[in-house]
Write a structure and sequence with these properties.
The protein is α/β, with parallel strands linked by helices. It contains 20 helices and 19 strands.
């Protein structure tokens, strides 16, 4: 019966055009931006003005008057009713909700646990919103159910809170390699958003979580959006998939470093129950045994910088201690001191600064960091890949070990999954081609790469030459004359060796010396995606 009700809900949402585009038109760009910051007043005012048929500039009403206008939701605009109720958390007339979901019906909405009805008013029990995206398969859109957020609850979250689509979710989905594979594991699925994304390129997805409520909501979201290749399993970490292997693992694990004290709430969606960054150590050391050879794992996470220890060294140690040989690429996007980190996550749980609870939690966090000598906490993205061969094999390629600090990484996440896959391919190509093979190879400049030259006034020779990457992580690299000439001539026609010999002749340089100088730098340009090998 539940599946039937979910299908009816989907039909009503489709009929009402409950979409990102519709909502953006309803309340405008500024209100949309305010909602992303957790503020609903501009959207409330925009809808109140629309509801009262007044121009936006004349909607200077009090908050109580806005709520009153909202409470008498129009039956002629179901999208407004649904947005008012499920996104903004304002009760609406039960009759208006019944008109907005005629196929599901008011009783069906209550039975699904979407609303409570009292005194002729419907009050949202969950957050339900449209979500749109673009991936390698094209544009898509879903409806996503999660628990009501802090903006609506106006207080601390419950410890079993199921988070909706937020910044971290968007980051991970943007990083996800989406090449066709047979089996994917979404470890700690939450509302199921990563499993839904993975289902677009996987034959079968297994989604796990320690929270039974999260799995119920994730299963609802899959059914609501007509996705039927996801299997849901309850359990902690890798327990639900012990003995199984996957072609890809994606996880936004509960990595938040939280004091392990009885008076500090442990939120299931973010707290893994381990001391410090222990949850990340478990994921990194254990993921290899659940990957098929060549399988990729991608995750977000935190790592501690302790007195006298670099955070990158901690992650390197985890990779080295893995159950299987792994390639590793770590990008640290930001680093916070203990105070800033504590403030971020205390507020994330809905506790407001300036209150006794906030101060108590603040002290607990700082005590915890001090006890373990934590000086800062790094945050970023980690891509791991199980080696195709045992790294003890003399024929095995040297493992990828790339650890980078990129504060500006992921200003926009679109296409990064494709870029990450291309970098892994480039690593493999480089490993398979020695200098003689590279000398014979034909290359071409990547289509997103541009060159910038700066000149001193009156000087014909450039003072600086810079390559800029339009996609990927938007890297820049400075070139000298010889390397710039090599890149500029890499148009897919001539082998590297022929180009270098011509450059040596123009510069009156020794060919072997120029080869020794340029080939290592050319390998780095290939790895970063500035130039691409043909064949």
């Amino acid at each position: 019966m539940t599946d039937t009700l979910i299908d009816r809900l989907a039909a009503d949402l489709e009929t009402s055009d409950f979409s990102v585009g519709t909502l953006s038109e309803l309340w405008g760009e500024r209100a949309e931006q305010a909602l992303h910051r957790g503020e609903r007043v501009p959207a409330l005012r925009a809808l109140a003005a629309r509801r009262s048929s007044q121009a936006p500039h004349s909607a200077e009403t009090s908050s109580s008057a806005t709520a009153l206008v909202f409470a008498s939701a129009s039956e002629s605009e179901p999208a407004v009713t649904l947005a008012s109720l499920f996104l903004l958390g304002v009760p609406v007339d039960a009759s208006a909700l019944a008109a907005a979901v005629p196929t599901l019906g008011l009783d069906g909405a209550v039975e699904l646990g979407l609303v409570a009805v009292e005194g002729g008013q419907a009050r949202a029990l969950v957050d339900l919103r449209p979500y749109s995206f673009v991936d390698t398969a094209g544009a898509g859109s879903w409806w996503i159910v999660s628990d009501l957020g802090e903006m609506v609850l106006d207080g601390a979250l419950t410890t079993d809170h199921v988070l909706g689509v937020g910044g971290a979710s968007l980051t991970l989905s943007g990083l996800m390699v989406s090449r066709p594979v047979e089996r994917v594991l979404d470890l700690g699925t939450g509302c199921g958003i990563q499993a839904l994304h993975a289902a677009r390129h996987a034959g079968h997805v297994v989604a796990t979580d320690i929270s039974a409520r999260a799995l119920e909501i994730a299963a609802l979201n899959a059914r609501l959006n007509g996705v039927h290749n996801i299997e849901f399993r309850l359990g902690d970490m890798f327990e639900p998939v012990e003995g199984e292997r996957f072609d890809q693992i994606v996880t936004n694990p509960p990595f938040v470093i939280t004091p392990r004290r009885a008076d500090v709430p442990a939120y299931e969606y973010r707290d893994g129950g381990r001391i410090g960054d222990g949850i990340m150590r478990e994921v990194v050391t254990g993921v290899g045994r659940h990957l098929n050879p060549g399988g990729i794992a991608q995750m977000l996470g935190n790592w501690e910088y302790r007195a006298g220890e670099d955070g990158f060294d901690r992650v390197r140690g985890w990779v080295q201690a893995s159950d299987a040989p792994l390639d590793a690429w770590l990008i640290e996007r930001e680093r916070q001191d203990p105070a800033a980190y504590a403030e971020t996550w205390i507020r994330d749980g809905g506790t407001r600064s300036g209150t006794p609870d906030f101060d108590r939690l603040y002290n607990a966090w700082l005590d915890d960091f001090a006890d373990r000598g934590v000086e800062s906490v790094g945050f970023g993205y980690l891509t791991l890949r199980r080696a195709e061969q045992d790294q003890q094999d003399p024929q095995a390629a040297k493992p990828l070990r790339r650890f980078e600090r990129m504060p500006d990484a992921l200003a926009a996440s679109s296409g990064l999954g494709t870029h990450i896959a291309a970098v892994l391919d480039a690593h493999d190509w480089i490993a398979a081609h020695d200098d003689d093979a590279l000398w014979r190879a034909t290359l071409q400049v990547a289509p997103d790469v541009t060159e910038e030259r700066n000149y001193w006034p009156g000087n014909d020779d450039p003072s600086t030459i810079t390559l800029k990457q339009g996609g990927g992580f938007a890297r820049t690299v400075k070139l000298d004359t010889a390397l710039a000439a090599l890149v500029g001539a890499s148009d897919g026609e001539l082998p590297v060796g022929v180009i270098v010999e011509a450059i040596a002749q123009l510069l009156d340089a020794d060919v072997p010396a120029l080869r020794q100088e340029l080939l290592p730098r050319l390998r780095q340009l290939i790895l970063d995606g500035f130039v691409q090998p043909l064949g």
